[in-house]
Amino acid sequence: MSATGYWAVEFMNTVQQDFQTRSAEIENYFKFVEALTEGTAVLSAAGTTSPAMSQEDFESLVKTLKANGFILLYNLVESTMKNAIEAIFEEFRTQGVSFDACREEVRQIVISNLKSHNPDKIFFSLSPIAEKVLTETFRKEKAFAGNVDAAKIRAVAADYGFQNPRAKGDNLLTVKTNRNDLAHGDKAFADVGRDYDVARLITIKSEVMVYLGEVLQNVGSYLTSRSYLATPPISQSNSASAPALPSSGALPERGQLVEVLQWIVDEVGASAFRELFAVSRQGLVTASVHAKCAVADGVVAFVTSANLSDAAMERIMEHGTWRIASWWAVARSA
User: Fold this and answer.
1) Rounded average pLDDT over 319-328
2) What is the DSSP letter of 44?
3) What is the pLDDT, as a whole number, of residue 50?
4) Which domain does 95 fall in, by range?
5) What share of the chain is helix, strand, coil (3-state, %, to 5)?
6) Residues 222, 84 contacting (CB under 8 angstroms)
7) Is residue 65 in a domain?
8) d(CA 263, CA 198)
9) Half-sphere exposure (CA, 13 Å, Cβ side) for 284?
10) CA–CA gap between residue 131 and residue 101 (Å, rounded)
11) Do residues 282 and 206 both lie within one domain?
């Protein structure tokens, strides 16, 4: 396993462990509430078999316990999402990912994070800025604030570029709404608890846990594949096969060579163009493409008068402009 893969797995293992611990606590809580409502568990006064409270007080307590389940579930939702996003930024920090290497969506998030900081307070922590601006501008406590439901998670997935969960998530809105009503005093615990029986709450709980589990799985895949980069590395296990080159001594058809080059750009990146010429010298009589600009990953581009040919690459002196993000430098290619 690569270092990147190792750290991605370690981060997500920690997040998964926290999710499982909180989930187990909620499972035990709902089992207790269910046992109370079914009469398989009773509340007795200490040292006696007498009920600890009147039936009216007991029914009121059960309503409060049921309503409190929404607070526990929302706590699970928000903590899981905060931890998942924190894992992404921890990956940036550990891997030394630079701002320019990230996909556009991530760069936009970082710029938005930067706007919320006092320049005087953050200035000295942004060195080197290309790397530190990603991690130093993130604040876990500000990631979410009582607003997480399935729609918010879909928006976050789109912002960062990880896959949306396919599991049903409608009840996350139910959890968020009830939690906010309780937290802001808009509804009493007894009122919320009265509207939901235990069976319905257990269904909501199960849906929320399945949905969050898929979110974590998708974020884990996002980190392992390094999909936060402008051009993620290609996994050899799932990349498309390269189009076949002609046999030794044969010239390629025009469309065939274009197909090969397109595959290189799509699957490998323009850095592999040079490997094509190593193949062409061994397997082809000649190979030449009249290319003037090779763009690999949204970060680096090389604009030149040189033809993409053996002669241009190996013997002829050519001038070109090498563009790296927003900085320009003149390079020479032999």
Assistant:
1) 47
2) B
3) 87
4) 3-224
5) 60, 10, 30
6) no
7) yes
8) 55
9) 18
10) 10
11) no
